[in-house]
Every structure is written in C-alpha cells, then in structure tokens.
Specification:
Blueprint (H helix, E strand, L loop, with lengths): L7 H8 L3 H9 L6 H14 L6 H8 L4 E5 L6 H4 L1 H17 L2 E5 L6 H8 L4 E4 L7 H9 L3 E4 L8 E3 L3 H13 L5 E5 L9 E4 L8 H16 L8 E4 L5 H11 L7 E4 L2 H11 L4 E5 L3 H6 L2 E4 L2 H12 L12 E3 L2
Length: 331
C-alpha cells in the first residue's frame, strides 16, 4: 500500500509553528526567522515532507509559472533548424528574465495535438508559424490565455508578430532578377501535404502565411520586371532543410538551368549553393551566419527579437508590438 503524503499541517504540528510559517519557509524564506526555518526544515526531514505540492500550489495561485511553445513541427525541429533555435533563444531570454519555465509542445497534425494544448500546464502560448487549417490555433484561442504567433496566421485571440514578408520578398527578388537570364525560386512547402516538385507560376493563395507572403512578393517583383509569373519556375521542398533544397535543385535541373536562385531561407539557399556552386547567384532569408560564411545576399530580420516579442505577449508583459523591421543584406 502506498504511504500517505505528509501534509503541511503535520509538519507545522511537529515543528510547533503555524501552517503559514511552513508555507513561507518554502515559498518566502526571507519572511521566516532563521532559527524557525531551521526548525521547520528539520521537522520536514523527520516526517519525510518533500515540500508543497506544485500542482496544488499552481491551482491556488491560478498560475503555473510556465510558457508553452507550440512548434508546428516535430520536436527535433526546434533543435535542428538554426532559425527556430534563434527564435527559441529569444523566448528563453524572457523566461529567464521573468523566472518562467519553458514547455515545448510539438504539433505535427496528429489528433493528439489539440489535447496536448488543452492539457498544457502553462500560463500563455507562443506559436511558431503554422497553416490556417491547424486545429491547434482554435484550441489555443479557446483557452483564453495570452498567446502570440510568429508569422501568422491571423486568428482572433492570438497576436501576430511578423515583418512585412511580402515587401521584403519583392525587394530581394527585384534586385536578384535584374540581369537574370534563367531565374529559379526555391520555396518552402506550400501546404501541410508537403509535396515537393517544380511548378510554373504557382497559385500564391497557399495555406502557410509566410510562404504565401513571400510568393506574393516574388510575383510582384517578377511582374514589375516584365516577367510573366506563369512562366516563373518555382522549386518546392518537402521539408525546410538544406538537404531537401539540394534534392529540389537536382530535380529542377532536368527542366531549368538557373543562373539566379531566390530562396526563402538561408538553409535552402545553402542547399542551392551546394549543388550549383558559383554557376548561379543565390539569395536567402534571415541573414544568418550561413549566409555570411557562403557569401550570398539575404533578407535580414531578427527571429531572436520576434521570439522576445512573442514571449512578452504570452507572459502578459505587453499586448501589442510594432511590426518587426527588415533590410537587405546584399553581398
């Protein structure tokens, strides 16, 4: 038979103090005289008392002291993707500042995703970009807790932290298309089906808001440059990774020989460089150490700062933020 949990009241009786004194010994030790605190801790040790029940304490306070981060990818993505890691570093900095715990909640389209959100012992949510059909969005909004999402989509009850991706994409593409004879766009997945392949001027009404905004910006630039969008080749990767970019470029070479590649991220741009070397001018997005090391142009934006902004909203520190800035890092 399992032994019963020792209660705070039993410790108080053993130490000859009030129950509140036992509580303060663990939660506000500066309010308890040193000799009294020592007496309480000695009594707790004799009885085998492990301290206040954290679940009961959070229920009494109405707060858990944790922020939840919903990744919208497999959990390993948070550690494997450099930009996701930068975003999480920004979130973590706020957690350190506010003395909050950080709970990672994977969301990959499984039926259990919504249950994980509903059952999460957190005070607010930070979400990594997902698509408009993700049931997790409504589940987060339904909790009524503060929430912010990087990149979108826009959902009532969830604040969006995102730069003007369409404007940044238009500016970079317009620069890259000048003088290009055979351009190629290297795109992140268009939907949760994650089908790789080469398209000509694909419909820009895709369900991932970041991908949609960047495609719209590329289309704007192509049309301004007098290039029909319906003729523009767009290679789509199945997963946002350098290796998937290599595969997409290798497959595209059967149909197009690009002298310019406009990629939606530095990871994808690096994959293009791996395959094409110096035979094509390449641009990326995020202006990471990778862009600087390989020497390609990139859209500069701070995912670290966006992580900070999302965490401040989710922790209740602020309710709105200005649109993050961007600029072109041309090389």
């Amino acid at each position: 038979m399992a032994s019963q949990r020792v209660t705070m009241r039993q410790v108080a009786a053993e130490a000859g103090v009030a129950s509140m004194t036992v509580s303060y010994t663990y939660t506000r030790p500066d309010r308890v005289a040193p000799d009294t605190r020592a007496r309480v801790l000695a009594a707790a040790q004799r009885l085998g008392y492990a301290g206040p029940d954290p679940v009961a304490r959070s229920l009494r306070r109405g707060a858990t002291g944790n922020l939840g981060v919903v990744m919208g990818e497999h959990l390993s993505y948070a550690f494997e993707d450099p930009q996701a890691a930068r975003f999480l570093a920004g979130v973590s900095s706020v957690c350190v500042e506010k003395r909050l715990g950080l709970v990672l909640i994977p969301s990959t389209g499984d039926p259990e995703d919504v249950d994980r959100v509903r059952e999460a012992a957190v005070d607010g949510f930070v979400l990594w970009t997902t698509d408009e059909s993700d049931a997790v969005l409504d589940a987060v909004a339904a909790t009524g807790r503060p929430a912010a999402i990087q990149g979108g989509p826009t959902v009532p009850g969830i604040s969006v932290v995102s730069p003007d991706d369409r404007g940044a994409a238009r500016a970079m593409a317009f620069h890259m298309l000048a003088g290009a004879a055979s351009p190629l766009i290297l795109s992140m997945p268009l939907d949760r089906g994650r089908r790789a392949g080469l398209h000509r001027g694909p419909d820009t009404s895709v369900s991932f808001p970041v991908t949609r905004a960047r495609l719209e910006g590329y289309r704007d630039a192509a049309e301004e440059a007098g290039r029909p969008w319906q003729d523009m080749p767009v290679a789509v990767v199945a997963r946002h990774s350098r290796n998937d970019a290599r595969l997409a470029i290798e497959d595209a070479l059967a149909h197009v020989r690009p002298d310019v590649v406009i990629a939606m991220s530095d990871q994808l741009a690096a994959g293009a460089v791996d395959v094409l070397g110096s035979s094509a001018l390449v641009s990326g997005w995020d202006d990471s150490e990778l862009a600087r090391a390989l020497g390609f142009s990139s859209v500069s934006q701070s995912l670290y700062d966006q992580g900070v902004a999302c965490a401040r909203i989710a922790s209740g520190t602020m309710t709105t933020v200005e649109s993050p800035t961007w600029n072109l890092a041309l090389r």
